[in-house]
Amino acid sequence: MEIVSNKQRLRQELKRKRMALTPEQRLQESADICAAAASYMNQLRQQKQKSTLTLFTYLAYRDEPDTMPLLHQCWQAGDTVFAPRIDAAQDALFHLYPITGIHDIEPGAFGIPEPKHDLPIVPESAWQEIDLILVPGLGYDKQGGRIGYGGGYYDRFMSRLEQTSSHLPVCGAFVFGTQITEKIPMESHDFRIDVLFMASEYKVTTKSEK
């Protein structure tokens, strides 16, 4: 129970810090973070010897780091982009949908941007095509630790991905400076982040040492 209460306190602290950023700060940092991610994706193309990549990303809501500048670059480059939509029948799950532009996005549950309801679901067999996942969260540490919002959506997705895919994609996160903390309390079901995308730079975590 101690780790759970520690997480609850940390979530509140990190929420306050992120909300304290001005709209101008969020806009500038988001643009710089997207630039860092675009640079990483170009290196990933070379590493994998692929002209295009498949990205699975969250769609930013309220004061989260904005992913949209990166998505526009991906669409222009011909990359495939997947985004999640919460399953209305099963609140603990989301499905993946392909989005090819902002015309494929609409307000979903709680006003959170989601793929339109009439788009085709990406089958689980196609999950192994994903090269990079961008996971939302409230805080991160340099060991790849992450604390989310408490819903467990991405924990369940990553667990399922490990069971169904022959290889795992790179797992990344968009991070404002205020979201880095010394150590995130981790539980057995929590997964770690491979690379942190920050303002104008990205850092590979020490996850592999754990």
Explain what you see:
This protein has 210 residues and is an alpha/beta fold. The protein has a single domain (2-209), classed as Rossmann fold, CATH 3.40.50. It contains four helices and eleven strands, in the order ααβαβββββββαβββ. The protein has helices spanning 2-19, 23-48, 68-77, 153-164, and strands at 54-57, 80-86, 94-98, 105-107, 113-115, 132-134, 139-140, 146-147, 170-174, 195-198, 201-204. The chain has a seven-stranded mixed beta sheet with strand order 3-2-1-6-9-10-11. Helix 2 packs parallel to helix 3. The longest helix has 26 residues, at 23-48. The radius of gyration is 16 Å and the shape is globular.
Task: Offer a concise description of the structure.
The chain is of the alpha/beta class. The chain has a single domain, classed as NagB/RpiA/CoA transferase-like (Rossmann fold, 3-Layer(aba) Sandwich).
Question: Which strand order does the major sheet show?
Answer: 3-2-1-6-9-10-11
Can you name the CATH architecture?
3-Layer(aba) Sandwich
Judging from the principal axes of the Cα atoms, what is the shape?
globular
CATH class: Alpha Beta
Organism: Paenibacillus nuruki
Family: Belongs to the 5-formyltetrahydrofolate cyclo-ligase family.
GO biological process, one term: tetrahydrofolate interconversion
Keywords: ATP-binding, Ligase, Magnesium, Metal-binding, Nucleotide-binding
